[in-house]
Structure formats: structure tokens, C-alpha cells
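Fold this complex.
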Amino acid sequence: MTSFVRNQWYVAAYGSEIGHELFGRTVCGEPILFWRTEAGEVTAMAEHCVHRRFPLSRSPSRLDGDRVVCGYHGFTYGPDGVCVSVPGQRRVPRTARLASYPVREQDAFVWVWIGERDRAEGTPIPRAPWLDSPEYTTVRGMEPLAARYGLLVDNLLDLSHETYLHGGYIGTPEVAETPITTEADETSGIVRVSRHMDDAACPPFYARSTGIEGRITRWQDIEYHAPCLYLLHSRIAPVGAPEPRADGTDPGAFHVEVVYAITPETEHSTHDFWAVARDFALDDQQVSTFLADNNRTVVLQDVVALDQLEQVVASEPPGTQELSINIDTGGLAARRILARLATEGAGSAEGAGAAGTAVTR
Amino acid sequence: MTSFVRNQWYVAAYGSEIGHELFGRTVCGEPILFWRTEAGEVTAMAEHCVHRRFPLSRSPSRLDGDRVVCGYHGFTYGPDGVCVSVPGQRRVPRTARLASYPVREQDAFVWVWIGERDRAEGTPIPRAPWLDSPEYTTVRGMEPLAARYGLLVDNLLDLSHETYLHGGYIGTPEVAETPITTEADETSGIVRVSRHMDDAACPPFYARSTGIEGRITRWQDIEYHAPCLYLLHSRIAPVGAPEPRADGTDPGAFHVEVVYAITPETEHSTHDFWAVARDFALDDQQVSTFLADNNRTVVLQDVVALDQLEQVVASEPPGTQELSINIDTGGLAARRILARLATEGAGSAEGAGAAGTAVTR
Amino acid sequence: MTSFVRNQWYVAAYGSEIGHELFGRTVCGEPILFWRTEAGEVTAMAEHCVHRRFPLSRSPSRLDGDRVVCGYHGFTYGPDGVCVSVPGQRRVPRTARLASYPVREQDAFVWVWIGERDRAEGTPIPRAPWLDSPEYTTVRGMEPLAARYGLLVDNLLDLSHETYLHGGYIGTPEVAETPITTEADETSGIVRVSRHMDDAACPPFYARSTGIEGRITRWQDIEYHAPCLYLLHSRIAPVGAPEPRADGTDPGAFHVEVVYAITPETEHSTHDFWAVARDFALDDQQVSTFLADNNRTVVLQDVVALDQLEQVVASEPPGTQELSINIDTGGLAARRILARLATEGAGSAEGAGAAGTAVTR
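Structure:
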């Protein structure tokens, strides 16, 4: 048994990564072959040829129209994974087919389902609509992480680390000092962690992108949809600017939607997709370049730290004790939900708990 | 228990690799020290000093005439592995000797026996006489393979992969399309796979070396002597050329003897010896250079593919299913023979089956 | 259970390695953080933050005066390992403290105790007073060894290897040829191996540093304090020079104190501290440079050999046989003492054997 939560949608790639070319990526330990048909549909099937297990994503395997030809002995498959041709004989064995995976494109991501097939349709894919909305400009990337995905979940649900690990980029003293509000919805598998700073220093990340020169009101509202999607609704406004209006509009503030998709590759490695969408300076290429460079730097600071941490955790006996404090409330809630989902092998619809337990300390 | 077939002869090296110098090579997990005496005899003994296990093939270990001097504390051994001198005392302990291995030179190869010593003499070494015959010119090499030897056996017994993995070198569509005839002689441990193409494209490998410009008759007659020696008798002739004569001569065709020695190094790595002997253009250095370069390229295509495949196979659960078809008949027969030989820890003479089962599909 | 002897003092570093900076070093599998307070005291505490196990020796963890600030979330610790500040709340959990280790500075080394705390005080630290004596000049270094520490103990207790592995540096034929006297004091855990050569070639190491041109009297008196400290009292004099006087002075000879501290890092790696102290040419920088370069070369010859040997030993089945002879008497005695100390989890004071067993052969 692995620790993976199987009956959930995972981000496998950005849609732009998948073209009419063979593309292999491992999701939750399953090696999957992705490619886009000539009509533009994304397909997902097992990556290894049924014959002698050759990886179909590797040269000289190739696409021939909408067929995948294995580079070893020429077994040939259609977009549904069914084998249509084998070498040296006319008859194709009936069982010759690659497992295919449910796959969807949504919000600039390619989502894949590795669990029980009949549960895919009924399980909603969480949304990150900013990523392909014309009202936002997005910069983004993906960094491979040589660490178990739980370490990234811990990291993102406790932003007090910004002050220390990302000081001079996105961290200021107020982030670590300001208490948080945590809300864990066991039923839907969503954890919310909020930290509202009324009067805080403006870190370079926001100062240079928004042009604000003084102190700011800074809201960090995290919304983690276990296991894969992490949203950070970030609101920045000069101190004294008006609050959001009753109708939801908020013209006095700058909004940044920070999106992470956290996809386990193996038990000890993770695909770390990150995107930063903003509702200001939409056409300003300098701001885009600055935010892309700056956020990649921040992500790589996490990557270095978490890769080191993986080495520590992997070298210590399993039960080694940690000490948790208030800032960890969100992360601990996420761990509980992930453990439950992994144990149940179950989707979010099966949660039996009451809808939401507010934890404020 | 390992999967190695122990009571068989293995190729450890080309004879030309072993001079009056210490040379270490691991065969079926056994680290062996080879060197040639001043009289020119090849010796084979355990590679690690009996005293503190220092590897005798490594500097500053050295040969002193026909004695090996350990580079750590100076234990000194004769060509039979018997210790003749130790430091700090005159008396040499009677048990101080390196295990020695039966070793033979034949057909340009150095063969070694790692199994029960008293069975070596009675077990014939399979022949590849072309490699040092004046009627043939040979090009050859050895590539280390980071894959279990069974993957190379599979590879070589199913040449339909030439069409896909080696297209543009030795593969043409006819290889994959033409049915094979398979014959497995369980008693002698020999598998024969034949594919006779009457009218086939001539791949560059043969076109440039023979000078044939049109289509060819191409015969591939494989003779695999489990576990170590693989022979591919390759006959190429212009379409319409006469068949071989009743007396065995065949002046209308070109003959290439492709020889592989498949020697397990460890459970997951293999010494891949390859040689290409031809009976034409004997003194044409250009043809030699072309065939050497071209065949090495082909071997390295296999190495890359099999190294990848080893990663796949090693990462999958042991029972992961493969799907076999007609082209795999030879490979499956080889697997059965290898499994039997490994289980028996037995030589070829112990096979109890009837002499030969023809399998044609 | 590991093979480590825990209730003993180990050299963690040279005192000069530890400044007012975070310094991580693993001793017997325990990752330890060292730093010097502003007052100059060396501290030793567990290297991983109690919160989420981040390594406190790694950037961006940092010292703030006499406090360690974790680079991940800012947990802050005093020199005693007690946590004094955590992010997001005023109250510091009472259990938030890093394990601290007894630590001492003596003879230029920083010694650490990883065993039962209440036994540290009563266990003496063995001495190597030459290293910071004004009557000696010392050159020194530390080389990481990718081999279990027992292989280095074997190596140093049998100097006959000098003739083979270090020929041309410190070895001459007489070292391997001359018999040894061995004395193992099971109670104190000390092994003594002596080899007195009355008329020996003078190896370059001593010829160039002492200026002696002819043959020498060469004494090698080893004193190994299991597990960590190895002393080689080396006496060199021209043949015919007077013996040491009754009062212990020895003006006719040159004395070199070769000191090794052998500190296991993990089960398969070792910190190899080496120092060479001399009582002659005290201010001669050329002699210092020569001895430093030459001894480092010798140590690296050992490192290369032992790293290879570790590969051999790790690849062989645990019970693989070795053959021991007279020169191994010291090494075998050391192994017995180390095995006893590891089994008892006990310090040297607990030995029950008679005080000293002379073994001469």
C-alpha cells in the first residue's frame, strides 16, 4: 500500500506541455503517456508497451498520425490505448490494450484520474479559473521536487515560513507574527487558513509589481483542496484603502491568485506546479518578468529546503517526533484529511464529518 | 539464490584483453582476476586477497614475474592462486590460496567456468570458429549493459525489433513482417530461430558492405547456445542468385556471422560482447571500418533501450504481465531453458526432454 | 542496533573548525550542530529543529548572537538547546528543546559524547598533548572516508601495509619484515603494537624532514585507545645513536607523534583526522610543508584503498572469511575490544579481564 490518495483528480501537466508528441509523466507512481490527437484531444494511457514493457514515451517510439508505434518491436496503439497492429502476424490479440486514464483539460491544466474509473465522473475537479481568464495575467512554471508531496503541503499551509525562508522576497516579520484562522471542512476535503495583516511592510514581490511605496494591508486566504490544488488568495492594498464592497468588487486593492498544483510523482518526489495570476498591470511585460523570476526564485528556495528535509525525514526512524504549534493547525488538518482519503481509497464525497470545524487560536 | 546458470562456460574477455597485467572482471557476480603468465597462459583466480579482501586487480597490487603481489600488505600468489609469501613471518598458512577457475581460450575468447569444478571438463564450450579463421575478417567490441542479461537474450532472439529500433541500419519492414520458424532443443540447450526473406530491401549495413544495389534474399538463422553464446548466421544474396549447393558451398551469397557473447556481470548488468565476421571484402579496411562503426551504433541502440527497460522492469512488481506473440516463440523457449538450467544448477547434459520441439506458427 | 560504541568520547572536529558559525557534523549516526558562543564556548546540540526537522546547520538557518534561528519557520534556541521563541505565539511549548551533548575541548580537538549522559563525566578523554604543546610543531588535516571505521582501525594497527601501500613515502622493506610485539589491555581498552627496527632504510618522509642520510634505528610504538584515538610514537635515530636515557629524555633521536582520531560518521563512512607532531625543526616551514603534503598523500592512499575495500566488504556476504597472520594480532585485539564495548553499550571502566595480555609471536 502506498500513501497516495487515488480517487482524486491530479494535475499532470499544463495543457501547453502536451502537443502532438509523446510525453511521459509519472503520477502517483503510475507512468502515463500523454499526447494530443490531430483533432486536439488529450489522451492518457499506460506508458509501457504491453509486449515487453518498452516505455512508449522514449525514442524511437513515435506517433504515426493518431497511432503510437512502440520503438522496440512496433506494437501500435490507437488513442484509446487499444492495440491495432503487431509485428509478424495479422491477428492482434484481443487483450492487447494499454490501460487508458480519464483525462480533462480545465483552467490551463491537464487533469488525470488514476483511481477507480467509475468514480471519476462524479468527482468534481477543483477550479482555478484565473489561469485562463482574460481578466488576469499569469506567470507560471513547474519545478521537480525530490521530496514527498506531504512536505510541500506542510510548507504551503504554513506561510509563516515566508518570513524566514523567503525573507527579502515575499516574507516580512508580520507574516510570522500575525495569528491565523483555520477552518477544515472534512466533508469536502478543504482546508482554509487565513491571516489578515492590517499594517505590514510591503515585501519587494508586491512593492515592485504594484508600485505601492508605503505600508500595506495584506490578506492571505489559503484554500487547499486536498490533495492536489492549493489556492492562495492574496489581497494587497495601501493602509487605509477601502475594504471590499458588499457586491464583492474591490477596486481599492490589488489581487494576486497564487496557485499550486501538488502532484506526487513517486513516494519521494513531487511535481510542483506554480502559477501567479494578477488583476493589475495586465499588459506590463516588466511586471510579468519580475513576478515570474521572483516567484521562481521563491519556489526554488522551497525546493532546496524541502529536498534537504526529505533527506532528513528519510534518514530518521518513521516515528520521529515533531513539535507542532498554532501555525501548524492548517497543516495538521490537511494531514488528517489526506490520511483519511488515503485510507478510504475514497473520494471527497464520502466524508462523514460535520461541514466545517473552525479552529482559531 | 541467484538466477545465474552456474555450470556453464562464459566468455570473460577477448583473448587480446588479457596480457601480462592484472585484469579484473566480474562474471555472474564473482569477481575474478585474470592475467597471462610470462609463458602466455591465461590464469583466472578470485580477485580479493585472502587476508583482508583487497582487490588484487587494483593498484598498487602488481605482477612480479609470475606472481601477484597484493597492494595492501604484500600477500603474494602464484599462477595457481596458492599464496607463496606473507609479510612478517616465514611460514605461509597452508589454507592461504585464492580459488582458481577453469579457463580456456577458444575462438578468440577467454572462457571461464564458475560452477562445480569437476563438471567443467565434461561440458563442451560452444564454438564460434569464424572469429579467428583466416577465411573471415572480424570486427568486434564489448559494451557494458546496465540491464539483466535476460533482456539481451530476449532482444537477440526476436529480430523483428530491427525494423523499429534499428531502422535505417539493419532493419527493413520485411524483418518484422516475415514469419519465423523456431526450434528448441531442450537437451542441448539450443534455440534456433529462422527467418528467410525471399525478396527484401537491402539495409545500409549490407548494401554498403557487399555492394549489392537491388533487393535481396536475406536469411537470418539464429542459433542460441544457452546461456552465453548467440550466433546469427546471416546470408545475403541478390534476388535470383542460386541457392547454396548440396556440398554446402554457397558462392553466390555473402555470409556474415554475427556473434554475441552474453555474460552476466551482476543480477542487473551484463557484458555484451559483439563480433561481426564476414567472408567477403576480407582485406577492405573501409568495409571493416564501416561495419565496426555501424554495428557498434546498432549495439548502442540496444544498450540505450535495454538500460531503459531495466529501469522499467526493476520498478515494476515482479509479476507484471507481458503479452507474447508469435515472434516471441524463440525468446520464450530460451527463457524456459535458462530457468531450467538455473533451477538444476545443472549443465546441458542433464536435460531429460525429447531432442527438439519444432514450433512454427 | 548499530555497531557503534556509544559510551565513549569522540573527536567531532578540530577546535579551529568551530567558530561563531553554525557547523553540522554527524558522529556515530547522530547529526549534531556545533557552534561557539560569543564568549568562546563550544556548544553541541541536535542538528534538526524540533518543529519540522529542518537542518539547523543549513542556510538560511543562522546565528543571532548566542541564539540559533531555524531557517524554515524561525524557531529560536539558546546555547543549551532550549527553545526561546516560536513564530505566531508568545508561549513557547515547554518541551521545545534540542537534545544537547556533553562537549569538551582538549589537545586541539573538540570531543563530543553521544552516549548515556551521566557516564560522560566519569569517562576520561584520552590525551594527545603534543598537538597544542609549544615543544612540538604539528601539521594536520581531516579526510572523509567512505568506509566503515573498522577498516581504518585495521589499517592503522597493522603498519606492515606501509611497505606496500605507502612504498616510497613511509614504507621500507623492514617494516613488513620485522616482527611485532602486541599487548592488549582489555580493561582500559588500549592496544599496544610495537615494532623496533635496529637497522633500517630511512624512508623519504623521515630522511627529508630530519636530514639523516644513512640507515636508521626506527621504532614504531602504537597505542590505540579504543574506539577513537590512535597514537603512533615514532622514534628515528641514526644507527648507533644512544638509546633513550633512564630519565626519559632522548636527545639523540627525532620524535614524531602521529595522531589519528577515528570518528564514525555513519555505518559506512568515517571522519579520518590525522596530525603529525614533531620535536625537531620546530620553526622550519619547509619541513612543515613537506610533512603536511607527504602525510596527506599517505592518508589519501589509505582513503582510496579503504574506499575500495568498503565496496568489496559491503558486496560480500557478512560471514566471508579472512585469513589472519601474526601481523594482525593488534588489529584482532582491537576488534575484540570494540565488539565488547559495542555489546555492553559500555565504557572502558567496565572491562572485567586481567590487566593486559602480552602476545608476541
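Chain C touches chain A at residues 31, 48, 50-55, 58, 60, 69-74, 86-89, 93, 95-96 (CB under 8 Å).
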